[in-house]
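Design review, sub-item: ligand-bound model
Attendees: FS, YL, KQ
YL presented the inputs for the NAP complex:
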Amino acid sequence: MAEINVKPYDVVILGASGFTGKYVVREALKFLNTPDSPLKSLALAGRSPSRLSHALQWAGGPKQAQGIPLLCADTSDPDSLDRLASQARIVLNCVGPYRLHGQPEVAACVESGCDYLDICGELEFMERMEATYHDEAVKNGSLLVSACGFDTVAAEMGMLFHSSYWAGASAPSRVEAYLSLESDRRIGANYATYESAVLGVANADKLAELRRSSRRRPLPKVI
Ligand SMILES: NC(=O)c1ccc[n+]([C@@H]2O[C@H](COP(=O)([O-])OP(=O)(O)OC[C@H]3O[C@@H](n4cnc5c(N)ncnc54)[C@H](OP(=O)(O)O)[C@@H]3O)[C@@H](O)[C@H]2O)c1
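KQ shared the predicted structure:
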């Protein structure tokens, strides 16, 4: 008889104490145990229980914070990531820059068949993870989804909206997108985002090299 693998947490948010992580916690709490929501159990993970606890209080206040487990995990400690992946159905990874911190968590999720989702905007990381882990992820039933953050979702939604106006069966050969932000409040980016961008530019040759290499799977052909 097949072993039923029951994981204690539907979702674990790794890097929940970060600038972005705490907003992810705040949104997740809105769905936790609400009627019709599949999110029935949530845990936060990171290096520092006190910073996680602080983020949880910020996101949900004392009442909602009660009973949410805080798990210790460090991206430089593979055992801690394995423990995390073995307890979660989905890990939401908010620890960046992903080129520095992401791969061990992807590896742990793939190994345990856990689903992985992040807010990465770093092309080389995303393409390298696909090239490295796609086959094993398929074999183990692990879904790896990157680029669920603002700088990619807005572009995807713009593209979907635009495509609804295309006549007949059309396929673009190239898409250029422009985004304009208006707000009364100051719009800024945190240091990790800046660092991710700088490292991306500094390592542009590695992305080009990866794209030339045979490790990269060919993109599906548009017929
Ligand atoms: N795509 C988008 O639109 C979008 C938007 C926002 C952010 N991002 C990306 O998201 C990432 C995070 O950005 P952020 O501004 O939220 O960064 P941040 O405020 O510096 O937060 C980083 C988080 O990672 C944790 N962390 C750092 N090193 C760790 C390690 N070795 N092991 C475990 N946890 C570790 C930190 O925990 P501690 O509390 O222990 O330091 C913190 O919780 C960046 O890569 C950024 O580019 C993308």
